[in-house]
Amino acid sequence: MSFNACDESGDWPPRSCLAVVLAAGESTRMRSARPKVLHELAGRSMLAHVLSALEEAGAAEVAIVAGPDHEAIVDEAKKLRPGAIIAVQAERLGTAHAVLAARDTIAKGYDDLLVVFADTPLVRPETFNAMRKKLARGQDAVVALGFKAKDPAGYGRFICEDGRLQSIREERDATEAERGIYFCNAGLMALDGRRALSLLESIGNANSKKEFYLTDAVAAARARGFGVGSEIAGEDEVMGINDRAQLAAAEAVLQARLRAAAMRGGATLIDPNSVTLAFDTVLGHDTVTEPHVVFGPGVHVGEGARIRSFSYLEGADIGPNAIIGPFARFRPDTMLAEDVHIGNFVEVKASNIGHGTKINHLSYIGDASIGSGTNVGAGTVICNYDGVAKYRTEIGENVFVGSNSALVAPVKIGSGAYIGSGSVITGDVAPDALALGRARQIEKPGRGKALRQRPRKEPCPLAKEQVPAGTPASGSEKDGL
Ligand code: UD1
Ligand code: MG
Hints:
This protein is α/β, with parallel strands linked by helices. The protein folds into 2 domains: 17-232, Spore Coat Polysaccharide Biosynthesis Protein SpsA, Chain A (Alpha-Beta Complex), CATH 3.90.550.10; 244-435, 3 Solenoid (UDP N-Acetylglucosamine Acyltransferase, domain 1), CATH 2.160.10.10. It is built from 10 helices and 35 strands. It is elongated and about 105 Å long. Magnesium ion (MG) binds at residues 240, 242.
């Protein structure tokens, strides 16, 4: 059994903690083939958000309660937290019944039992810790999490006497007067691990839904003379997600949090509301992000870099002082060194780009490594895929790739080499060489004028125009040959 560390003030002794994550509910209102808790917020699943907050809160053991038809949830859980215990709730008989699907694990005897909902993904680790800290005082058997609802419809209500929580009433079972209460149950609960099982097992289903309600743990604790505590959270933090509109509302809350954190960390967002961040976006000091930029997962932007508008970046490590976009697209495994310039309509994927290299217009760079000081001209395309497999391209330092070139991988271009514009490069190019792979230009004196002056009815004869015999495949005066 593992323990969390003491808190900074040292007044919180190490306590073992089991978190039971409830995810067995049906997701009818989502109208989705995907289980609700696998829908994403800021680039990762709701379940991933919950598991990460629990990890930060020091919940060393986690049991995930899934439904019998929830293989996808089990797969995601195992991927995110390989040590997690998976419990299956065969029949959906309520939240207390769901917690008891993990009965054997609870019975091992932890100091704290945290019950959390996988469809309530915005709860901060600080809130879990506040609940656990209250339990650690030793008086309470249950600590419930409450919030003041703008509209309490659908939530369980906190029933208090003399300011002390006595029970939680589900809306369907509440009296008219109780429905007027705005202090609501967020659903999550911390229970004293030693008393939790007997409390949970004492809960019946004498209510309108004939379900075993976790919320009844409060009245059960009071009935035995145990203490009951509560913590308060903001409504935004405890929002539960049942449909797509709530998913979008949660995304907005999370984005606001992420943007605020980025700006606190020293990043400029010119129009924060138009920038979409991922849960793990790192924007270095003095970076500037212009309006309408989307960061997918796995982006790190080095100090002083500028991300221009309409760029879409995922899985990219961007070096200090780089200038990206507008309209740049980075796909996973993109690594840019310092001072790299990537301009408009440039897509980069699985490539390393060296210090000071410039790829400023209309290019595709895939599965490549490019040295420092290289210039890749407009319209350059790396042909990395032959319809069956992908191949790598290596371009050295201080290379000049002329505009509209196609580099057919696998291919190596040596440092200092020069590729003539419009070349299709299929073979390796030695360092400092000039490579050309294109048709030689021909010229027919006066022929342009004759074409322009032909009778209007005559079809255009250009298609039949002959290339003089003996014209070499490539090279011209302009290439310096
Ligand atoms: C619950 C609370 C309610 C609170 C609200 C906050 C109970 C009885 N009620 O109600 O007081 O105001 O949350 O959002 O706890 N689940 C299972 N198995 C089940 C039933 C539910 O795993 O048999 C899981 C769901 O997947 C979900 C969580 O438990 O993650 C909550 O269930 P839900 O049906 O949404 O409870 P609410 O009616 O919203
Ligand atoms: Mg709910």
